[in-house]
């Protein structure tokens, strides 16, 4: 029988977060997911399609798609470019 077998996925994640490589990859994935949700919600508030937002921002549609699907963890400059194109700004906060 396995000792200290994790009960839930949260238990597994908490155990794995003790590994610094895993923690770094996990944090990057969470950041990409947060950017995806924020951009998706912002675009919908604007009533824009991915194509329209990409055109306004001077980016490829694939860039918007990759950010919104969490495949791409965008650079701050890219988010600022998107925000500037629609008269908005980016707010960034650090969370513990």
List keywords for this structure.
5 helices; 96 residues; 434 Repressor (Amino-terminal Domain); elongated; mainly alpha
* Number of helical segments with 4 or more residues: 5
Radius of gyration (Å): 17 Å
CATH topology of the domain at 21-85: 434 Repressor (Amino-terminal Domain)
DSSP E strands, number: 0
Proportion of beta-strand residues: under 5%
CATH architecture name of the domain at 21-85: Orthogonal Bundle
- Helicity range of the residues? 55-70%
**Unreliable spans:** none
Order of helical and strand elements: HHHHH
Shape: elongated
N- and C-termini, Cα separation: 36 Å
Mean pLDDT across all residues, rounded?
A: 92
CATH uppermost class of the domain at 21-85: Mainly Alpha
Can you characterise this structure?
The chain has helices at 9-16, 20-46, 50-57, 61-68, 76-85. It is mainly alpha-helical and 96 residues long. It has a domain at 21-85: lambda repressor-like DNA-binding domains (434 Repressor (Amino-terminal Domain)). The longest helix is centred in the middle third of the chain and has 27 residues, at 20-46. 10% of the residues are buried.
The gist of it:
The protein is mainly alpha-helical.
Break the fold down into its secondary structure elements and pairings.
Layout: H1 9-16, H2 20-46, H3 50-57, H4 61-68, H5 76-85
């Amino acid at each position: 029988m396995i000792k200290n077998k994790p009960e839930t996925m949260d238990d597994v994640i908490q155990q794995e977060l003790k590994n610094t490589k895993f923690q770094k990859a996990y944090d990057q994935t969470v950041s990409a997911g947060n950017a995806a949700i924020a951009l998706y919600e912002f675009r919908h508030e604007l009533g824009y399609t991915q194509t329209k937002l990409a055109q306004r921002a001077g980016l490829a549609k694939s860039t918007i798609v990759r950010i919104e699907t969490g495949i791409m963890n965008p650079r701050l400059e890219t988010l600022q470019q998107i925000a500037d194109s629609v008269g908005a700004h980016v707010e960034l906060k650090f969370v513990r």
